[in-house]
Design goal:
- This protein has 187 residues and is of the alpha/beta class.
- It has one domain: SPOUT methyltransferase, trefoil knot domain (Alpha/beta knot, 3-Layer(aba) Sandwich).
- The chain contains five helices and nine strands.
- The chain has a six-stranded parallel beta sheet with strand order 3-2-1-5-4-6, sandwiched between helices. A three-stranded antiparallel beta sheet has the order 7-8-9, with no helix packed on it.
- Helix 1 packs parallel to helix 2.
- The site of S-adenosylmethionine has 17 residues, from strand 4 and helix 5.
Length: 187
């Protein structure tokens, strides 16, 4: 099974919530790692560490490394990079997703915030520029749709490793149990 890691470019310390939502989405939708490039944000590291402790892993979390180094190292190891951008090949119209899956390689997904460096569109950085529709919207929405298409929904049944807490789906009430125990913590 291919490994998928998300690289968040352009995180601003004053804009912590959006990056947190992006990273939570990456984890919940099947990624095995996340990188916040070029900047260290210890609050986000703490949030993600708590999430993995309570809701399970595995998930690698890296920060502060330059995006260029991450991309270069990834490609050196034989992985491919996919840049999510409104300007790329529309995932719904062409065969870009088929080509990505057919490559059978680990995938580094590059996601921006403000305007990304123009090099991101170049083949040295991105093997594929993929748009989730050619309208500008949100990095969280773009990542969720991309991962759901890539995994064809299987990620929504993913079992996480060693969680402390687990939600028991219920049509009417909130039920959270301690993993392996019968006691209901919240309902
Ligand atoms: C809120 S957008 C900002 C885009 C920026 N204003 C620009 O013109 O490049 C932030 C990120 O969301 C992602 N994104 C937004 N719309 C997208 C789309 N239609 N398809 C794929 N990714 C998208 C891209 O990764 C983008 O860098």
């Amino acid at each position: 099974m291919m490994k998928v890691v998300v690289l968040r470019w352009g995180h601003r310390l004053r804009d912590e919530r959006l990056t947190s939502h992006l990273l939570l989405t990456a984890r919940a939708f099947g990624c095995s790692g996340i990188v916040v490039s070029d900047v260290n944000d210890w609050d986000i590291l703490e949030t993600m560490t708590k999430i993995v402790r309570d809701w399970g892993g595995p998930l690698t979390v890296e920060m502060g490394i330059s995006w260029r180094k991450v991309v270069t190292a990834w490609k050196k190891k034989g992985g491919i990079s996919v840049h999510l951008t409104a300007y790329g090949e529309n995932i719904q119209e062409g065969n870009v997703l088929k080509r990505i899956i057919a490559a059978k390689k680990d995938i580094l997904v590059l996601v921006g915030s403000q305007k990304v460096p123009s090099e991101f569109m170049q083949s040295q950085v991105s093997d594929y520029n993929v748009s989730i529709g050619n309208q500008p919207h949100s990095e969280v929405a773009a990542l969720a749709v991309f991962l759901d298409r890539l995994y064809q929904g299987r990620e929504l049944k993913k079992q996480f490793y060693e969680p402390k807490l687990r939600i028991l789906p219920n049509p009417r009430k909130k039920v959270v149990i301690k993993f392996g125990e019968r006691d209901t913590l919240k309902s």
